[in-house]
């Protein structure tokens, strides 16, 4: 019973955090990467012309990966690092409070990304479903 509740809680958390990243990344594409690149240049992000599309792709792909529970350690860490970049370049100077443009929200996203990255994702994560199937096939071959 507790394992089922844990898996459902992890699934809901992955969906929520993944959806936030997906939408933010998608907005970078639909709003125009030129605008995102210009913003990155304005705030001093190095190689803004490369960083803007890279962040947009990471947020879209990473959001989908979190929702599916796929490659969680990789995408969770990369998304957390992206949020640390957002703190350094955008939100850190504004203090903690999100309502003042501070880093509260992006810090929560970074922490949630790391928790998901190393949680295993739960029984309903693609990573675990794949491992189980692979284990079943290996057991059948060995048996």
From TrEMBL:
Keyword Cytoplasm on entry: no
* Keyword Hydrolase among record annotations: no
Please tell me one Gene Ontology term that the record gives under cellular component.
plasma membrane
Q: What is its main location?
A: membrane
Which Pfam families does this UniProt record tie to the protein?
A: DoxX
Q: How does it sit in the membrane?
A: Multi-pass membrane protein
Question: What are the UniProt keywords, alphabetically?
Answer: Cell membrane, Membrane, Transmembrane, Transmembrane helix
Q: For this UniProt entry, which segments traverse the membrane?
A: 7-27, 47-68, 75-93, 105-126
Which subcellular locations apply to this protein?
Answer: Cell membrane
Q: Which domain of life is it from?
A: Bacteria
Q: Report the PANTHER family cross-referenced here.
A: INNER MEMBRANE PROTEIN YPHA-RELATED, OXIDOREDUCTASE CATD-RELATED
Similarity field: Belongs to the DoxX family.
Q: What is the protein name given in its UniProt record?
A: Membrane protein
């Amino acid at each position: 019973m507790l394992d089922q509740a844990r898996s459902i809680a992890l699934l809901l958390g992955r969906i929520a955090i993944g959806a936030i990243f997906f939408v933010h990344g998608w907005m970078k594409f639909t709003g125009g990467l030129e605008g995102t690149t210009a913003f990155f240049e304005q705030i001093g992000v190095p190689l803004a012309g490369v960083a803007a599309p890279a962040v947009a792709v990471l947020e879209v792909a990473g959001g989908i990966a979190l929702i599916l529970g796929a490659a969680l350690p990789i995408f969770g860490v990369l998304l957390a690092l992206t949020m640390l970049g957002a703190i350094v370049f955008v939100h850190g100077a504004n203090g903690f409070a999100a309502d003042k443009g501070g880093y509260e929200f992006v810090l929560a996203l970074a922490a949630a990304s790391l928790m998901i990255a190393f949680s295993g994702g739960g029984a309903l994560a693609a990573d675990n479903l794949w491992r189980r199937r692979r284990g079943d096939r290996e057991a059948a071959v060995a048996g």
